[in-house]
Amino acid sequence: MNYFEYRNGEMFAEGVRVADIAEKVGTPFYLYSTASLAHQFNQFKEAFGDVDLLICYAVKANTNQAVIKTLAELGAGADVVSEGEMRRALKAGVPAEKIVYSGVAKTVSEMTFALNQGIYQFNVESEPELYQLSSIAAELGKTADITFRVNPDVDAKTHAKISTGKSENKFGVPWKSIRELCTRAAALPGIKLVGLDLHIGSQITELDPFEAAFTRISGLVETLREDGHDISRIDLGGGLGIPYEGDDFPPLPREYAEMVTRVTEHLNCKIIIEPGRFLVGNAGILVSKVVYVKKGEEREFLIIDAAMNDLVRPSMYDAYHGIVPVVESSEESVLYDVVGPVCETGDTFATNRLITPMKSGDLLAIRSVGAYGAVMSSTYNTRPLIPEVLVKKNDFAVVRPRPTYDEIIGLDQLAPWLSE
Ligand code: LLP
């Protein structure tokens, strides 16, 4: 469902005119819809029916606390990959016993923090990490519930930079070594092996790679049980894709859940999933203003006030994002290259894109940027991070304000020999 709809030719976010927010907040800014977040979350929840399920929102997709809290209030736990993310999740009201900790290189201080908070589970990715966690937990007199992240050697058929389940990727433990590692884990203090975990990649638009990976992990659960391990949880990671306009429609949560149930039901395990993009991706747009329309020799450029530092996905992954005017026009569309003001050719949001004629000062919306948008932004070119705004019905609130120049520049300190 789309919560950014036109009414009488003007784009609304739920019940609020997008142009009104732009006027109040200034451009560019990220804009999220509460109803969209809830709709996406509930789709997953309903799809799994009465399966014993914990949905751990992969907060890396969008760490704004207002977004995390909106999902937490609906019952979401969190998947975190750093102490910073865990602190945010806790602050946004996710209880520690609903937080799972993923990531290839958890440090001593991160493990200590998570153990002291009473985290639900560590997804362990290597043998050295296992020994490290065991020794810290034993020292603290605690027991860490762990899963091993299995590298199932499956091709997720997605962009190479976001594919994580092949044997050449740095993630997880090769599936062939899992059995041996579990035997070693069983003998360690401070550790309780409770399950297996995997995450094969992101923006996956077919069920087959998931099914191949989940079948492999189910087989491993059976083998481990035969070996005498008490396996009660399977964490299936995230990765379900979303439509980016122009993409084929990815599988629906209902289809995904049916497949998961078919492959894992007989094991009677608690199922954990870690969706990120699916929950927040289509719940956000980036609103930007046209600064100049520039006629090049070959192309016409819409130079907008957002740039690659605000949304890096097009330049980093050649990602496609829909770009639409905030005020509709009946004029015939023309071809534009939509670019930002940063001094790099990679600062391009779209090439040869059909958009109705625009002029300086007009507003544009870049669609489907709720996931991996604001979180991947930077202050390159000393451009302040852009605000994030959350809409709920007829209300909106700035949930991260635009920093001042003094705040950004003030972060630097001169070395003593450079001070006056
Ligand atoms: N669990 C783990 C262990 C992960 O590493 C990730 C994402 C997720 C869950 C959530 O995956 P999702 O449901 O969002 O696909 N920056 C890239 C995406 C990187 C994904 C990294 N891992 C992009 O903009 O496409």
Q: In DSSP terms, counting alpha (H) and pi (I) runs of 4 or more, how many helices?
A: 12
Helical residue percent? 25-40%
Number of strands: 21
Can you say what the CATH homologous superfamily of the largest domain is?
Alanine racemase
Ligands in the structure? ligand LLP
Rounded Rg: 23 Å
Shape: globular
- Structural class computed from helices and strand pairing: alpha/beta
Strand content: 25-35%
Major sheet attributes: 9 strands, mixed
Number of domains: 2
In CATH terms, what is the architecture of the largest domain?
A: Alpha-Beta Barrel
Question: How far do the termini sit from each other?
Answer: 59 Å
CATH fold-type name of the largest domain: TIM Barrel
- Just give the CATH class of the largest domain: Alpha Beta
